[in-house]
Structures are given as structure tokens and as C-alpha cells.
Amino acid sequence: MEPSTTLVAAFLGLLEGLTEFIPVSSTGHLLLAGHFLGFESAGRAFEVVIQLGAVLAILTIYAGRLISVFRAAPHDPQARRFILSILIAFLPAAVIGVLAHGFIKTVLFETPMLIAVMLVVGGVILLLVERIAPEPTHDDAMAFPLLMALKIGFIQCLAMIPGTSRSGSTIVGALLLGASKRAAAEFSFFLSMPTMAGAFTYDLYKNRDVLDAAALNEIAVGFVFAFIAAVLVVKWLLGYVSRHGYALFGWWRILVGGAAIIALTAGY
Q1: How many Å is the Cα radius of gyration of the chain?
Q2: Which residue ranges of the chain lie beneath pLDDT 50?
Q3: How many domains does the chain contain in total?
Q4: Burial of 20 (0-12, 13-18, 19+ CB in 10 A)
């Protein structure tokens, strides 16, 4: 792999880790950055597979808590309900993602202007929800009602449009359904584990014939940088949103999306 490609893969991995768990659309950032840098992976596998680094970052941080939940599940109804809530929330994305995989990867992933517009639209929505979200009635991400979890799962499917943001859609959905800012972010973390692991596994299977040694090297570099950056972001994010909310990320989306629209319109 050429050094320049190594640096691009490292940069994109860092970008993935920094943006995966904040509501700004990591996929949107990756695809736009790849477009302007002239980077294109085989089958767009790089952009999906390096998300495993971010998944492992979440698993590392929450390992003790998750182990406790699974150990308690045989005799603790609350632990079983939490596990079920995550599975229920994951189900819509699993079904729709498989059915629409080809369209998402060959059409939506290849439309930079759509991605840029969705960044701006999502930023406006995030700023609006900050103002209109109801008073929180759910402060514990591990105790969301099952129907609420299912609704968040359907809202998460909007993130199949790149630029929308998986974390952004789940956080906005949770806030509108009465979750506190911290609980909304934390439930998004938990839901990301099966969602991203499932996307990684399915995409790796679908692209197994086009991944050569060079592609795997790029993915390995991106994976490492995504893991490191995601660990730092997750540890910082919960405290930040509890104190300051999500407005910063809304403005960031509008800035990045607006700049991308201008650049694309100018022919870049």
C-alpha cells in the first residue's frame, strides 16, 4: 500500500472514530472526505467495515456493565427487559438493511450532494429538537419501555440515508420520546453494538470477493485509528451532552454540509 494511501486510511479511520457516536453522521463525513480526497474502496467496504473499531471501543468501555447484565439476566427481569429492548430496537434496521442493501450502497452512497444536503437538514432538525423536546421522563437508558425502544429502532432506519447519522436519528428519536440527553446518548451507544456489528458482518460477506490484500491493509489501518478515536469520544460525550446538549453538533453539521454543497456546486 502506498504511503499516501496509508495516511488517507489513517485519517478516515480517525474521522470515523471521532464522528461515529456523535450525531453528525460518520458515514457522511467518510464519504465526503473520500470524495474530495479521491479515495474509493472496493464495494465501499472500507467505510462500513472500519466501524468495527468503533464497536469494539464501545464494548471495551461497557464490558463490565454488559457482563453484569448478562450474568443477571437468568434471574433479573430488568436485565432481561434491557436485552430485549436492544434486540427489538435493532430488528427494523436488520430487516430493512438487508432488503435495501444494494440500493443503499450503489445509489445513496454514491450521491455526495444528497449526503451534504442531509447533513444540513439533520443539523437544523437537531437544533429544533433541542428546543421542542419534551421534559424528560426516562433517565435510565437500561429501562426504556419496549414500545419506546421499537419506535427508536424504526427511527434509526432513517440513517440508511448517508448524511442522516445513526446516532443522530436514535438520539433525536429518544429525545422526542421523553429520554434525557444523557440517556438518549447512552441508549444510542448500546444500540450501536448489534447494529454496527450486523452491518459489518453483512457487508464483509457481500464484499468477500472484492477485498484484496491492499483493501484489507487499508481497513486494518482505519480500524486501529477508529478504535482509538472512538474510545476518547465516548468517554467525553456523555458528560458533555449532559451539561451542554446537542446544539454544537447541529451547527457543525450545517457548517460541514454547507461547505460541501458549495464545493460540489463549484465542481469539486
Answers
A1: 18
A2: 1-3
A3: 1
A4: buried
